[in-house]
Amino acid sequence: MEQRKENIVMFPFMAQGHIRPFLALAFHIVERKNCTVTFINTPLNIKKLRPSLPSNSSIRLLEIPFSSTDHGLPPDAENTDAFPHLIVELICASHSFKPSFTALISNLIQEQNGHRPLCIIADMFFSWTAKVAHEFGVFNAIFNAGDGYGMGVFHTLWLNLPHLATDSNEFPLPGFPESCRIRLNQIPEYLKTIKPTDSVVKFQQRLCHDWVESDALLFNTVEEFDHIGLTYFRQQIKRPVWPIGPVQLSMESKAGSWELYKNWLDSKASGSVLYISFGSQSTISMSQMMELAKALEASGKDFIWVIRPPLEFDINSEFNAEEWLPEGFEQRVVGEKNKGLLVHKWAPQVEILSNKSVGVFLSHCGWNSVLDSLSHGVPIMGWPMTSEQHFNAKKLEEEMGVCIEVANGGSCEVRHEDIVAKIELVMNETEKGKDMTRKAGEVMEMLKNAKKDEDGFTGSSLKAIDEFFNAALLQREKTTMSHNNGNLLGTREVLSSNSLV
Ligand SMILES: *[C@@H]1O[C@H](CO)[C@@H](O)[C@H](O)[C@H]1NC(C)=O
Ligand SMILES: *[C@@H]1O[C@H](CO)[C@@H](O)[C@H](O)[C@H]1NC(C)=O
Ligand SMILES: *[C@@H]1O[C@H](CO)[C@@H](O)[C@H](O)[C@H]1NC(C)=O
Ligand SMILES: *[C@@H]1O[C@H](CO)[C@@H](O)[C@H](O)[C@H]1NC(C)=O
Fold it and tell me: Which UniProt keywords apply (predicted)?
């Protein structure tokens, strides 16, 4: 008789920045553990995902019923990419999923003749799934698409609000080593202006707090360079914390478009090109854009710049080079001098970063971009825009030595002279620049090794996946045993008697 494959249920929040890493994790687990995945989301998101999976895929898509208008939201508001201002409303609406999620799990079990899924891997916003999982005696893990350090700083800031209790410009972070101090300008604007009694504080604190309901945390990172952040969570949550990264989906390449970049990059010397992108959601202000353009021209370096309308305008509007860039910039720098490429909307980032001509990435430090860059040994010039991007930049610079910060947020004043100085510091073969490149190369090796499985060596991230799988198996065995004894122990009790916890 053919052995039944284990099934893992995954449920990300309704945003591309959550769905994509979950899908990457699904591919990774299916390959490593030869299991199947049931991937749950709201109808429109599932519909969008369907064409990207073959019909015989081990990943099965499943809709959870949701109608945005029932929650006072606009029609079709099912993804924060189209409705970025509705993130809190969508998180709140997702609390109504509990009965239908319970029904979905119950159906899955019936379909499998009583065989329960091995585990439910849920989003950081969906810690309520832990209760449902435990009702069925199923292991529950939260997958966080960021790293332990960035999420840890976020966690401690919301829970402890240390910046409100001090006049000092620099202060320690509760739960972090004394040496990890944070400066006021490394904290996102919205956190600086809150009061402890604000409803958003209560909301965030509950989200952070509820993580302890889960049986484990998974992070898209690597043990070797995230020790501080992972230790923070191990101490705070007192649950297994497994770094299982890097998992990444490469953007769908748009046929034909790569040729243009390839020919241009091929004509440039190794390490000579600066790649600039603020991710798919962010942009900088009009004055910052002007200064950055002047800096590029003054530095004389080659660049590829993924450019979007400035903050003051609709990010999806037509780019107006005459108003938003120095006069004649495109004609002179891009045209006559062939110094750069201006790319509107989308560029094949992984392909660009994998070319040796690219020496540095000026990035908003979103975790996916950070992984793209470091996976290719490319050091970073950090220009974080929001939330944990600030903490990612801090860690990359202070703990890892692979980054220097150029600017901070969309409202700070920047001067092109300062940007030029930073570009030259990294790209002019200075000691600092060479050191950053060397360290980025070391991190690239760590990322590769973490997922290596050969000649008797198993990398740390693969070991972590195996441990996670085994813990979930063990828990199910125990709940099955107690069930058979006519004594269904609470999963929490079973877990706490489990030496892995
Ligand atoms: C995967 O699992 C199935 C069912 O248990 C089994 O028949 C198959 O040989 C396994 N494949 C690998 C590569 O282990
Ligand atoms: C699905 O089908 C394709 C083509 O028919 C095949 O190459 C692939 O191996 C199949 N995948 C699985 C998981 O069976
Ligand atoms: C990448 O860049 C190098 C020069 O730095 C060039 O020689 C090479 O052909 C490029 N490779 C690809 C695949 O684009
Ligand atoms: C950096 O190199 C460029 C030439 O590529 C040169 O013009 C510039 O003066 C250098 N800057 C510093 C600070 O040495």
Answer: Glycosyltransferase, Transferase
Q: Helix 416-427 vs helix 431-450: angle between axes, to the nearest 10 degrees?
A: 70
Q: Which domain holds residue 284?
A: 257-450
**In the chain, how many domains are there?**
2
Average pLDDT over residues 310-316: 89
**For atom 14 of ligand 3, which residue has the closest CA?**
262
With a Cβ cut-off of 6 Å, ligand 1 is lined by 2-3, 5, 34
For residues 14 and 37, membership in a common domain is answered with yes
Strand pairing report for 453-454 and 457-458: antiparallel
CATH code for position 346: 3.40.50.2000
Residue 298 Cβ inside 6 Å of ligand 4? The answer reads: no
User: How many angstroms separate the alpha carbon of residue 356 from the centre of ligand 3?
Assistant: 6
| Tens digits of residue pLDDT in 109-124 | 999 999 999 999 999 9
**Is position 269 within any domain?**
yes
Q: Is 58 in the pocket of ligand 2 (CB under 6 A)?
A: yes
- Residue of 415 and 262 predicted with greater confidence: 415
Distance 290 CA to ligand 3 centre (A): 30
Exposed, middle or buried, 169 (CB in 10 Å: 0-12/13-18/19+)?
Answer: exposed
Residues 146 and 76 in one domain: yes
Specify whether 37 is located in the same domain as 141. yes
Query: Span 385-398, mean pLDDT?
Result: 92
Q: What angle do CA 287, 293, 299 make, to 5 degrees?
A: 135
